[in-house]
Design brief:
The chain is an alpha/beta fold. It has helices spanning 18-27, 42-46, 59-64, 84-88, 97-116, 119-127, 133-138, 160-169, 197-202, 223-226, 246-255, 296-312, and strands at 2-6, 32-36, 51-53, 70-72, 92-94, 150-154, 173-177, 190-192, 206-209, 234-237, 260-263, 283-285. It has two domains: 2-98 and 294-312, NAD(P)-binding Rossmann-like Domain (Rossmann fold, 3-Layer(aba) Sandwich), CATH 3.40.50; 100-285, 3-Layer(aba) Sandwich (Rossmann fold). The strands form two sheets. It has a seven-stranded parallel β-sheet.
Amino acid sequence: MKLLIVLHHRFELWQAPQWFAGQLRREFPHLEVVPLRDYERLNEEIADADIAISWSLRGEQIRAARKLKWIHSTATAVHALMSDELRASDIVVTNARDVHGPVVAEHALALAFALAKRIPQCVHYQQQRHWAQQELWHAGKRPRELNGATMTIVGLGGIGRPLAAMAKSIGMRVAAVREHPQRGGETADQVYGLDGLDRALGAADFVVLAVPVTPATYRLMDARRLACLKPDAYLINVGRGVLIDEEALIRALQAGSFGGAALDVTAEEPLSPESPLWEMDNVLITPHIAGLTEKMWERHYETFTRNLRHFLKGEPLLWVVDKEKGY
């Protein structure tokens, strides 16, 4: 049985470390493990692979994969995999929602704290060696409490569920927006469907986008939805940049129509140096680091090998993606 690992990316953390393949070979000696550092031999190697670890395969590669039964994505979002060929196939797709979700949730909460406590502005004054107590208090947006504030979480999946629990633990009121509100949310005070999104946005002090990219969520936050936000509300995006109409976001931020934004993701990455977002004092940018942690690959190994044992025993896999829905 052959396992193909192809995770080429300019950022080294998104590539599997050398020990990953070696440890798989030691623990599963009957498995042929083939790691690729680029896509040059991919069509050749995937032809007889039974399992692939990858977050990006094209339709032509799915067609070439005569034996492929399972693709595991080391990302949570799988839209880069979802070709017509893959949707039409019997190949099972799983993702790493339990690896990244809790860590990204921590980052989202950290961004909420940073915005509420005016941390970016404090850093600005620190760089000027200025004790800006008066300025920070008399500014239009004063430091505020999270306890008692309302957080609306759009998407109650691998990120949204742990984030809701964290927010509740510090006394926040949590509203959740999900595709199937009837499933509820044990950690949310109120659950809306997408048809209730405008109402949930209008009630929020903090809005966190943590929903998958689908046709229904592409540019979900357009000009009309951004206008639903309260004047002192903050928008936090730890999902994908295309969840927001970025031009509409820039116009709304320039107009000061809501409190500000914290963006870990942007429509194009890296964000262009020419983007007005860089210089806005009501924007906090982190460079897609919400899921980064020194323990990431250890957690990847633990979750993948757990599923691998299920696969080898013919048991149902965990964290299966609905290929029609795309998440």
